[in-house]
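Field guide to reading this record: the first block holds the primary sequence, the second block holds the structure written as discrete tokens, and the final block holds curator observations. Each block starts with its own label. This record concerns Dihydrolipoamide acetyltransferase component of pyruvate dehydrogenase complex, catalogued under organism Mesonia aestuariivivens.

BLOCK 1 — SEQUENCE
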Amino acid sequence: MAKIELKLPKMGESVAEATITNWLKEVGDTIEEDEAVLEIATDKVDSEVPSEVDGVLIEKFFEADDVVQVGETIAIIETEGEDSTKKEDQPSVETKETSAEDSANVTAAENIVHQAKETVSQDYSSSERFYSPLVKNIAKQEEISLEELEKISGTGKDARVTKDDILAYVEDKKSTSKTQTAPTPSKPTQKAVNVPVSVNGEDEIIEMSRMGKMISHHMMNSVQTSAHVQSFIEVDVTKIWNWRKKVKNDFEKREGEKITFTPIFMEAIAKAIKDFPLINISLDGDKIIKRKNINLGMAAALPDGNLIVPVIKNADQLNLRGLAKQVNDLAGRARGGKLKPDDTQGGTYTVTNVGTFGSIMGTPIINQPQVAILALGAIRKVPAVIETSEGDFIGIRYKMFLSHSYDHRVVNGALGGQFVQRVAQYLENFDDQQTL
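BLOCK 2 — STRUCTURE
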């Protein structure tokens, strides 16, 4: 019999860890190759970790709500064949079961987790509340007593304290300590007060989902970080409306999928970003990071009401047909919960279609660490003045509003306004003679 290590797979360049949300298999269960063993979650995406072999799950090293680093062993599967756990470039299964002295050969990150499991739990063993090894380890390093730990409100499953909860507590504790030791003499420090909410017997209390909580924190962080300013412009998209109506049936018959307005808008936005590259930046302290790639995020609504932002990588290098394929693929997998963590990473500029629900314009919140976001309003059939060489007349046109939110710390009104104006120019000058 052989023992195979099930490791947390790499999920994208910027994804270093994930939270275990649910074990689909328990110790003693038989597992088939490619069968999902557990569910995990990153900042944006829920996904599954499949087994690479047929076998039996004999050991689990983490529980639900534990945070695991990419490459860490999360379970052991016993199978027929040669034991693959004993390799020179990774610790063996026996390493996890030996003393703390033997574990010195393990990498620093794995050693911290090992110590958390073997020693830290003893310090908080008298508590009836569940704490993950990582949370206990942070508590020990920050010298947080059991009494303090018990008072921390948990946002995890069953009100468990997560890594973010305890780190927020530590940060708040340090800030409070500094305020108490060096108060401002001219202005007394005021603490934020939570306003109590009255609940009567007819009210329904609904627990926010894990993703809802993360979106909430992400949005609040953006509002507190960026100086939001908006510019609005109305665009005549009659040529685009008529062109899509002309080609959509042939495209669907040939490609087996629909051609929507979104890839047309994405093409215009990518062109405008090439004209104004200082929209495609991030701010790191006092340093501006100018992004080389144009990776367009497109906000997509999920069936549960939450939003997710899959990313079209190198959008400026795709033609309209390629953009249509990418948009349909990402939107379809978003609705079906099939996105991979890497699908939501690396965005440099975001687009959100508020017109999907009938809104003619909006003031979207910037998707950090980006500095701008564009909202697409609903396309409306309206009367408009049409200028011709023979004079002006009133006609029916298809129009929409573009709402551009940008970070005034680094994007001034001229750049923010010129950018959205350029997007409008590309849309109004769309080549309606082209073929897909």
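BLOCK 3 — OBSERVATIONS
The chain has three domains: 2-97, 114-178, 229-428.
The longest strand covers residues 391-407.
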